[in-house]
Amino acid sequence: MIIVTRPGTTPEQIQRIRDRVAALGIQTNLSVGTTRAVIGCIGDVGKLADLPLLAMAGVESTLPVGRPYKLASLAFAAKATEVSVGGPGGPVVGGAELAVIAGPCSVEGPDMLRRTADHVRGRGARLLRGGAFKPRTSPYAFQGLGDEGLELLAAVRAETGMPVVTEVMDPRDVGHVADHADVLQIGARNMQNYPLLREVGEARTPVLLKRGLSATIKELLLAAEYVLSRGNPDVILCERGIRTFATATRNTFDVGAVPVLKSETHLPVIVDPSHAAGVARYVAPLAFAGIAAGADGFIVEVHPEPAEALSDGNQALTFDAFEDLMDGVAAFASAAGRTLPPAVSAKA
Amino acid sequence: MIIVTRPGTTPEQIQRIRDRVAALGIQTNLSVGTTRAVIGCIGDVGKLADLPLLAMAGVESTLPVGRPYKLASLAFAAKATEVSVGGPGGPVVGGAELAVIAGPCSVEGPDMLRRTADHVRGRGARLLRGGAFKPRTSPYAFQGLGDEGLELLAAVRAETGMPVVTEVMDPRDVGHVADHADVLQIGARNMQNYPLLREVGEARTPVLLKRGLSATIKELLLAAEYVLSRGNPDVILCERGIRTFATATRNTFDVGAVPVLKSETHLPVIVDPSHAAGVARYVAPLAFAGIAAGADGFIVEVHPEPAEALSDGNQALTFDAFEDLMDGVAAFASAAGRTLPPAVSAKA
Amino acid sequence: MIIVTRPGTTPEQIQRIRDRVAALGIQTNLSVGTTRAVIGCIGDVGKLADLPLLAMAGVESTLPVGRPYKLASLAFAAKATEVSVGGPGGPVVGGAELAVIAGPCSVEGPDMLRRTADHVRGRGARLLRGGAFKPRTSPYAFQGLGDEGLELLAAVRAETGMPVVTEVMDPRDVGHVADHADVLQIGARNMQNYPLLREVGEARTPVLLKRGLSATIKELLLAAEYVLSRGNPDVILCERGIRTFATATRNTFDVGAVPVLKSETHLPVIVDPSHAAGVARYVAPLAFAGIAAGADGFIVEVHPEPAEALSDGNQALTFDAFEDLMDGVAAFASAAGRTLPPAVSAKA
Amino acid sequence: MIIVTRPGTTPEQIQRIRDRVAALGIQTNLSVGTTRAVIGCIGDVGKLADLPLLAMAGVESTLPVGRPYKLASLAFAAKATEVSVGGPGGPVVGGAELAVIAGPCSVEGPDMLRRTADHVRGRGARLLRGGAFKPRTSPYAFQGLGDEGLELLAAVRAETGMPVVTEVMDPRDVGHVADHADVLQIGARNMQNYPLLREVGEARTPVLLKRGLSATIKELLLAAEYVLSRGNPDVILCERGIRTFATATRNTFDVGAVPVLKSETHLPVIVDPSHAAGVARYVAPLAFAGIAAGADGFIVEVHPEPAEALSDGNQALTFDAFEDLMDGVAAFASAAGRTLPPAVSAKA
Predict the structure, then answer these.
(1) Which of A91, B198, C45, C88 is positioned for an S-S bond with C66, CB 3.0–4.6 A?
(2) Closest Cβ opposite residue C139 in set D140, D193, D229
C-alpha cells in the first residue's frame, strides 16, 4: 500500500499514519517531497485493505500494491489449473482441448433435453448445460423445474455419459445439486453471494463462476478466492458480458477480460457468448472472438425450437446454428493452438 | 407488448407470430405499413415477457407495454405505503417525518455500539443501523461478529428503544436475524438473490431493499415484487449509488432514481449517501440532495472513531460530522415539506 | 508520480526507470520491499503524465500524485471565482445569488423567444438561454436557425436586458457568436474539442463548459484548463448528466459531481437538470437536488408549447412548470444559504 | 414510430396525438386495448424523430421503428462498400484482404517515422498511421508536430508508397490535411463534432471514423451519415473501445459491435486494439478477437522504442511485438476467410 499525504500535512500527522500501519505489524518507509509525502507500506496487503486510511488526517490518496487474492493469483500455481469434470476419462477444462458446453437454458422436459444432448454431443460438445433452478428477474416468470429438472439432468447424464453443468442459487441446495451434477454453476447475479460461495467452496464438485454484470476482474478473482479458500480448487471462470450504456447486444462482451485474466490467474477461463449477445445471430462471432482472445472454451445455449423456449429463447441456437458454430470454430481453435473435442456419432 | 416486423416478412410469418401470442390467450391487433407491420398484443404483460419473440421469423423488435410489476406499482395502492417499524409508537418510514437511520457499518463491540446509538439518537436518528453479517469483497476481510453482533444490537435496542436495521445475507439466517432486528436489510449485492428475497417475503419484518450496483429501476421494483408477492407488504427501497465509469465518488449517486421511483411505486424510498459517496466529506451534500429530490429519509454510517473502524471507515461520519449533517438537513427537510424526528436527550 | 515495480525487477531495471525520470529533471526516492520497490517522483506532474512508464521493463503500476490541472485547481485561487456576465450590473455566477438561466432549447422564431424571455425574466431568471447552432445526432434533424437565431437572441437581449447564453460549435464561429451573446456555451459533445476550447480561450467572453457524457471530473477540469491557459479566466462548469446503463432518466444526473468539483476548483458550478432528466416532470426535483448539493445555479429549458418544440420538447418546461420550479426552489436556495434573483415585472 | 398511451387517456387526447402526426404528412393506425391505446405511425422516421411526443398529454412511451440513418444502412447499398485508398493500386478497405494499418501514435521526427514505416511495411502493413495533430486531455501534454508532422508523413509516403492515415481535429485544417494524407481520421472525441464531420463530408478523401467513448452504434452510424450525406461515400468505421466501469484495460473493447455493425451497414469496419487495450501486451489478443468477430482490418500503434514515445507509449508495440502480432494473426485471418497483405522486403 502506498499512502500519499495532502499538502500541509504535519509531521505529527504523518507519524500517526505510520504508527497506525505499524500497529498491524507492517513496516513503513517515508519519502518527503516539497508538498507531499509518500509512505510505502511493505507487507500483507490483506490486512491493509481494511484500514480506513482516507479517514485519517492528512491522507489524500492510496494505491494498493500487490493483489488481494492469493490462491487465485498466477503466482500461486506452478502451472495453469486443469479442472477435470465428471470423473476419470471425463473432459478437462483448461487443457489443450477447448471445453465446449452446450444445452438448453432451462430443462423443460425429458424429450427436449435428450434431443438437445444427443445433438450437441454429436457435434462435439462434451458437457451438457441445463438449468433446473432459474434466477429470473420477475417472480412471475418460469422459475425452472427444480428437483424434477435435476432428475432429468442426471438421467440424461447416465444415458449419454455427458457431465452436467447446472446452476445452484441457494446455499441449502448445494449438496443436493452436487449429487446430480458435475459442475456447480454460480450465476452472474450470485457472484458476490458469499454464503453460497462458501458452501460450494466446501463441496468437492467443480465450480463454474460467472462474472457479475458490474464486477471488476479483481472482484471476480476475489469471489473465486472465497471458493478456493474453503478448499475447493476447481474453479472455472466465465466472462459473460457486462452491463454498460451500450444496448445493441444484451450485454457488452468484455473480450479483453480473457487475456487480462490469463495474465492474473492460473484458473481456466471460458466465455458465454449467448448471454453476452442476447440474440442468436451474434453468438457465433462472439464465440470466435473469445477463442481468438485465448479462452479455454465456451458455453452456449441450444434449443430444439428456440421460439418455443420457456426462457432465453431469443439467444438460443437452433441445432443447425450450433452445427454452423462448431463448423466455424474449428479453424479459430486451430489458430489459437487448441484442439476441439472430436464429434461422436449420436448413438455412440 | 408491441411487435414490429422486419421488411419482407410474409403474411404467413405474421400469422404465425399472432397465433403464438393467441395461444397464451392474448388478443392481437395488426397494423400493416409499407415495409413493416406492427402487432399490438393487449393483455397480461407477465405472460408475454417470457415469450422469445426475437427467435421467431420476421420479428425485428419489441416494445413492452405496461409494467412487469404489479404489487409494487403506484397503481396498486390507494396511497403511499407507510412502513411502521419496531411496533406501536415506533418510527414510520414513508410518512411526513423523514426516516433518519444511523449507526456503524459493522457492530464491532458493545461500547462503540452503545456510544454511537446514544449519540445519533440524541441528534435525531430514530433507527439504529449496524452490521453483524458483512458482505465483504475479500474472504480475508473482517466478516462481522455474526451472532454476537446480533446479540449486541438486541441489547442496545432494549436499552435505547431504537429499532434496529441489520443486513441478512443467508436465507438460513432470516428467522434468526428477524428475532433480533426490526428491519431486515438486503444489501446491494443480494438485490437479485431470489432465495433470500423469497425468505424475507415470508417473514413478518419490514425489509430494506438496496438497489444493486448495476440494477435498473425496473429490476429494483421486480426484486421488491419478489418480497411483496410472498406476503410481506413492508418494503423500503434504497438508492445507494450505482457503478459507472465515474470514480470521483465511490459510486454514482443516482439522485434521479428518487423521483422516478416516486412516480412508479407506492413504496417508501430512502437514500444511502454513505455508500454513494465513499468518503465522509461528501455524505452531507448527497443526503441534502436526496431529501431535496423527494426521498423519505436516509441511512448513514457513523462511528466514534472512523480511523479505527473495522470496515468502511473512510465513509463513516464522526459524531461531530453527524451533528453537522443533522443541523444542515433541517432546512432542506422543511423545504421538502417534511419534518425531522425531534432530538432527544441522550439519557431519555 | 509513484511507480511500483513488479516482483523480480532487477536493480538495473530500477535504475533505468529512475534515470528516465531524472532525465526530465525530476528527483526520485526509492523504497525497496521484499517483492516490490516503490519509486517516488517528486516534481512537475505535467511532465510525468506523458512518460510511458508502463512500457518500461519492471513497471507494474503507477499512481499519479497531485493534480494535472493548475489554473483550475482550488489551490490556484485565493477565493471562489465569480463570473460577471453581460457587463456592469449584470448577473454574477458563483456569488451568493444563484444563477438562474432559462429559455428554449432552440431559438425557433422571434415571438416564441420574446414570450419565453419575458416569462422567465418575470419569474426570476436573469440569463436567457437559446440555441442558434444545434448539435443534433442526426443530420436530418433541425439544426437551428444559425445566424438568424443569433440575431434574434441579440434583439431580445436588447429589449429585455437579459444576457444571452448560446452554444458555439465551430471554432470559426467564435468571434461571430461572441458578438451576439454574453456567454459562449460549449456543449457536452464538444467538451474535448480542443480547437474550439482554444478559440474560446482567446475570447473575452465567459464560457459555460458542459461536462461530456463520459467525462471524468479530471477531464472536465483539464478541458477548463485549455480555456484558462489561453487567457480567459471566466469559465462556468456544468454538470448535465452522464451516460450509464441506467435509462429511467435520459442521462444519470451525477449530483455528487457538485461537491467534488467544489472541493477541487474555484470555478463556479451549475447544473442542467433538463438534459439530465430528459422529461419535464423530473426537472424540478433534479434542480432542487443540485442546489442542495451546493451548485451555484441551474440552466433549464422552457418553451411556450413544448409539444410544438422543434428540439428537445420532451424535457422543456411549460411556463406554468417553470413557475412551479421557481416557487419550489426558493426554500432550497435558502436552506443552501443562497439567495434567488428577485422576480421582475414582465414589462420592467 | 409506435406511440403507446397512458391508462386513462381520453379519445380527444388520442385524436390530438394523431392530428399532430398527420400534420407531418404521416398516416396513423390506432389499436385500442383495455387500458392503453397503440398508435402506429407509418412513414419517414426522420421527421418523427424530432417530434416531442412525450410532451403531449397521454403519451407514455414511444418505440422508434426503422433506422434513422439511410445512406449508412445495409439496405441502401447493393453490396459491401470497399474503400480504395491512395489511388490506383492502393489498398482497399472492406475487401477480402484485411486492412493492416500501423505506425506511431505521434509523428515525433523523420527518423522514427521512416524506421517504423519500413518495418511495418516489411511485415505486411499497407497503410501508415501517424498523428500530426494530437487531441490531448491536458493542454500541457505534447500536442503533435502539426504542419511539420504532415510534411514528414507526406515525405515517407513518397518514399515508401504507403498511403497515410492521420487525424484532423479542426474543420479549418481539413483541406490542408487532405493534401498530405490519404485517409482523414476523425478521433473518438470528435465523433459528434458536426462542423468537422460536414467538412470531411465535402472532401474527396476517405474518412476513418472512430466510435466515441460513449457512443451507441446508432450514434456512430448517424455520425457516418453526416459524412455520407455531404457526398463523401468513403467512410471506414472503427471500434476502439468504450468507457465503462471496467478498468483492467484502458477501454472496454466492444467486440460485439463488429457483428452488429456488419448487420446494420455496408461500410467497412476495422478495430483499434491499441486504444482498447491501453497496454501493449493485450493488443495482439484483441486484434485476433476483432478479426475473429468479422472486422475488415485493424489499426495498431508501433514505435521503435515505446518507452521513449512522446504519447501513448504504454500501448505501442515494439517492432518485435508487431512481428509477433502479424505472425499470429495469419491463421485467424484465414479462419475468418480473409487474406493478409503480403509482406514486402524492407527495401522494395
Answers:
(1) C45
(2) D229
- Taking the Cβ of residue C311 and every Cβ of chain D, the question of whether any pair is shorter than 8 Å is answered with yes
Shortest alpha-carbon distance between residue A25 and chain B (Å): 16
Residue among D244, D293, D335 whose CB faces A335 most closely: D335
**Residue A82 and residue A94 in contact, taking contact as beta carbons nearer than 8 Å:** yes
Chain D residue at shortest CA distance from B62: D63
When pLDDT is cut at 50, 70 and 90, the band that residue B347 belongs to is: very low
**With left for phi above 0 and alpha for psi between -120 and 50, is residue C50 left, alpha or beta?**
alpha
- Per-residue pLDDT of B259-293, as tens digits, reads 999 999 999 999 999 999 999 999 999 999 999 99
Q: What's the whole-model pTM score?
A: 0.96
Q: Which of B192, B283, B317 to mutate to test the interface with A (most CBs of A within 10 A)?
A: B192
Residues of D in contact with B40 (CB under 8 A): 31, 33, 38, 40
Q: DSSP alpha helices (H): ranges in chain D?
A: 11-22, 45-49, 110-122, 147-160, 174-180, 194-202, 217-228, 257-264, 273-277, 283-292, 319-335
**Would you tell me how many other CB atoms lie within 10 Å of the CB of residue B342?**
8
Q: Name the grid cell of A95.
A: 487443457
* Predicted pLDDT of residue D136: 92
Query: Nearest CA to B328 among C19, D307, C292, C73?
Result: C292
Q: Is the ipTM of this complex over 0.90?
A: yes
> pLDDT, tens digit, for every residue of C306-320?
999 988 899 999 999
B254 contacts on C by Cβ (under 8 Å): 244, 246, 252-253
Q: What is the interface size between A and B, counted as CB pairs within 8 Å?
A: 132
pLDDT digits (tens, 9 = 90+) for A168-194: 999 999 999 999 999 999 999 999 999
Nearest CB to B214 within list C217, C245, C277: C245
Per-residue b/e over A66-83, b at no fewer than 16 CB within 10 Å?
bbbbbbbbeeeeeeebeb
* B211 within 8 A of B257, measured Cβ to Cβ: yes
Which amino acid would we find at residue D340?
L
Question: Under an 8 A CB cutoff, do A140 and B172 touch?
Answer: no
Quote the pLDDT of residue A345.
Answer: 57
Tens digits of per-residue pLDDT, D39-86? 888 777 677 777 888 889 999 888 887 788 999 999 899 899 999 999
Q: Is B214 on the interface with A (CB under 8 A)?
A: yes
Cβ atoms of D71 and D269 within 8 Å: the answer is: no
Instruction: Report the residue from D244, D256, D334 with minimal CB separation from A276.
Output: D256
| Residue pairs spanning B and C at CB distance below 8 A | 128
Least confident stretch, A19-28, B140-149, D292-301: A19-28
Which residue stretches of chain A are H helix?
Answer: 11-22, 45-49, 110-122, 147-160, 174-180, 194-202, 217-228, 257-264, 273-277, 283-292, 319-335
Contact C63 A4 (CB under 8 A): yes
Say yes or no: D63 contacts chain A, CB-CB below 8 A: no
Beta pairing, strands C2-5 & C59-63: antiparallel
d(CA C116, CA C109): 11
Question: Would you state the pLDDT for residue D347?
Answer: 45
What residues in D contact C195, CB-CB < 8 Å? 169-170, 172
Which DSSP helix (H) or strand (E) runs through C38?
strand C37-42
Q: What is the pLDDT of residues B107-134, one digit of tens each?
A: 999 999 999 999 999 999 999 999 999 9
CA distance C146 to C148: 5
Closest-CA distance, D285 to chain A, in angstroms, reads 5
Contact B172, A171 (CB under 8 A): yes
Q: What gap in Å lies between CA B283 and CA B271, rounded to an integer? A: 11
For residue B249, pLDDT beyond 90: yes
Return the pLDDT at A347.
45
Question: Which is nearest to C103 in space by CA: C160, C51, C39, C46?
Answer: C160
Q: Do D219 and C243 touch (CB under 8 A)?
A: no
